[in-house]
Amino acid sequence: MNLSELVSSLPLEPWVWQAFVVVFLTLVASYAARGILLAWGRRLELTATPWDDALVDSLRRPLRVLIWVVGIAFAASLVPVAGEGTIFEAIDAVRDVGVVACIAWFLVRFVARVEANLVARADRGERALDRATLDAVAKLLRASIIITAALVVMQTLGFSISGVLAFGGIGGIAVGFAARDMLANFFGALMIYLDRPFTVGETIRSPDREIMGTVEQIGWRLTRIRTFENRPLYVPNSVFATIAIENFTRMLNRRIYETIGVRYDDSSRVQPIVDDVRAMLESHPEIDSDEFLMVNFNAFAPSSLDFFIYAFTRTKAWDEYHAVKQDVLLEVNAIIERHGAEIAFPTSTVHLAGTVDANPAPRLPGAGEERESAGSAGAP
What we know:
Largest sheet: 5 strands, antiparallel
Shape: elongated
Strand order of the largest sheet: 4-3-2-1-5
Strand content: 5-15%
Order of helices and strands: HHHHHHHEEEEEEHEEHH
Structural class: alpha+beta
Number of helices: 10
């Protein structure tokens, strides 16, 4: 007996064979799609654009699930329905929900893959990238996709979208009052993304609060800052709407502002010292001569004649700045020593009006003093 005779002899209904063929073709289509996407992905990995390989990579799993959802739903529709209330009556709704879910899954994966590709290219130095803006756009896109997919699913299942939106509008007022702090943090994050006073990786400080460190993450509710003590600091985003922020990363230069005093005995050497210090700063390779520079005598201090240094370094790095400042201060000390002067320190000088007798003779009180003493004796 051959295969055809064996199949014809089996007591099976025609819809069974039809469902079997549909499932088999679904399996073949799933493996074919997998092979095509793998081959296509290998070719697109060689291109420079981050969009095509992200499209193929994000399409692999959702497409195979979509093929199975459509195939199984079609095979289930071939099953004859015997009676009412059977589970097969929900095939169309389940298929529609599955299709919407697969499309939303693909779009969310695509946004995530594009974001990862752009960040990887920025890490390799191929292009400049504002990571805070990219993160904000990616989060908004994912939220929009999920909300839209949820509304479409509800519409597919027979719910009234207009009623849901109206309920959300009425309930939003109560939710707004109950979660005003959360909404304030959300809009604070939106302000950070739009105004961009700082981004991830930048060093900031607030003169109004004890906030200083490197920004690690900007979330919808909190911003994580790594302090210089290597501790994480979590700041609600609403705080940034009411405080001033200094961004050290975006500064053009770092400033050296120091006051140095010499002794009053070296008053004749102040002018040459000031001139030599100014010349040294103007020729220093790490001092930006294009920026404002001043060296002037400015005060008769209690123990010194003070002159100040006002200059800007070329570097913005914290450690390099202190190395340059150290070199400048050592050069200033060398200039003062070359002129035979000394840096002043707090001193006090006592001038006596005359000599004091070591053994003074006793003095008898006068008449007035006697009367004063007598009066004092009678006092209570």
